[in-house]
Amino acid sequence: DGGITQSPKYLFRKEGQNVTLSCEQNLNHDAMYWYRQDPGQGLRLIYYSQIVNDFQKGDIAEGYSVSREKKESFPLTVTSAQKNPTAFYLCASSINPTGLNTEAFFGQGTRLTVV
Amino acid sequence: QQPVQSPQAVILREGEDAVINCSSSKALYSVHWYRQKHGEAPVFLMILLKGGEQKGHDKISASFNEKKQQSSLYLTASQLSYSGTYFCGTEIKAAGNKLTFGGGTRVLVKP
Fold it and tell me: What average pLDDT score do residues A86-103 get?
């Protein structure tokens, strides 16, 4: 079955530590995205990637980093520079890298809590 | 660059109708609509690609006014299963494949 998988589902981090959230897709999609969702809030774009070895900052990239070494993988690192990292993180992918408007498929999310 | 949604929340009785609006300050390539149930991933409803386009999914439909840079989602004869948070996502003409979302509209359908 094709899909997009995020792991882990729940993650706890101590203050001052970096943590990496995994996102893998086997849909052969070119574009991948990371969003942050706070309780009762919308989805805010952190980073997105249209193609392997290339990515762009979204609206709230500070304190985060990504890599796109493989088409199917787009891990997100939440660094210690992110002052308020507790949130629900969603990864998504879409087939088309050229801005021609195809639906985004979402993973089930990772809930990160700083303790 | 994030689109603005209104209202923020709506409460309906089963069978009632509702409209959710989404507007952008930038020229749009497309508008997406998604629904998210609590604690779950957003699920795609529909995408509108051309000005004036309208699409439907069951009794949920949407329109796109490209000139006004606005889209509206119509919930007709609402069912309990329509409860959730609805998000519009927009792709802006000047920003390539960057999909950004509004703040969401929480919909609660009561029996």
Answer: 80
> Cis omega (within 30 of 0) on the bond before A8?
yes
Cβ–Cβ under 8 Å, residues A93 and A49: no
Strand partners, B32: B47, B89
Distance from CA of A21 to the nearest CA of B (A): 16
User: A33, B2: Cβ pair inside 8 Å?
Assistant: no
Q: Checking DSSP bridges between strand B18-23 and strand A54-57, what pairing results, if any?
A: unpaired
What is d(CA B4, CA B22) in angstroms, rounded to the nearest whole number?
6
Give the best residue of B32, B98, B106, B108 to mutate against chain A (max A CB count within 10 A): B98
Taken as a whole, chain A contains a residue count of 115
> Which of A100, A103, A108 has the CB atom closest to B32's CB atom?
A103
Q: Do B100 and A41 touch (CB under 8 A)?
A: no
Residue B12's CB: how many other CB atoms inside 10 A? 18
For chain B, the average pLDDT equals: 89
| Contact criterion met (CB below 8 Å) for A115 and A14 | yes
